[in-house]
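User: Okay, second chain of the day. Same drill as before: sequence in, structure tokens out.
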Amino acid sequence: MIQFTNVSKIYPNGARALVDINLKIESGEFVFLVGPSGAGKSTIIRLLYREETPTRGQVVINGKNLLRMKDRDVPHLRRNIGVVFQDFRLLPSKTVLENISFALEVIGVAKKEVRERTRAALDLVGLASKEKVFPNELSGGEQQRISVARAIVNNPALLVADEPTGNLDPDTAWEIMDLLYNINKRGTTVVMATHARNIVDQMQKRVIAIESGKITRDEQKGGYGYVD
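Assistant: Same drill. Structure tokens below.
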């Protein structure tokens, strides 16, 4: 599914975000990326959906080398990757329904299928009754649910999440994690960067720890391992 081989990311100012990362994630896994702020977790997330490319090494997803990929092929790659952000990134001038359906419309899905898939995604996140409201009329937890619905409406093989519970209270955070857990059970690979110690410790999934751009720990049924 995902293979990082000797991946380094060095920015023009000389900052070394990642140093010789070797990593393999199988289809259907649920993986937490943990570590201090600035350790390189978000860089790994951005490499996965090709927001950035490595300075050295290879990132391969489903047999496709993202470094060699032409820019015109990136939109096709992203059709199979859902992305959830800490700050939701919903379009404020569009309704809930429009925010989700937009992800399908831009790739030319037929109108009838757009409606069916959008409403199915809303049902999955438990917000079918909110389709006509705007993001500013929703709570933070509801906005993140819509963000998750938008990320999965295209039935992606991979869902990447960068601190998706960071702006939420503990109860709401667990609601989002229940969603991600159920999405993973349906077969979607989930890779999540997080500082949420309680969530990582209780869920007991694979944990990959990043410090100073290097993998320092990779364990199945792992714990958070840091004191905040």
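The first helix runs from residue 41 to 48.

User: Thanks, on to the next one.
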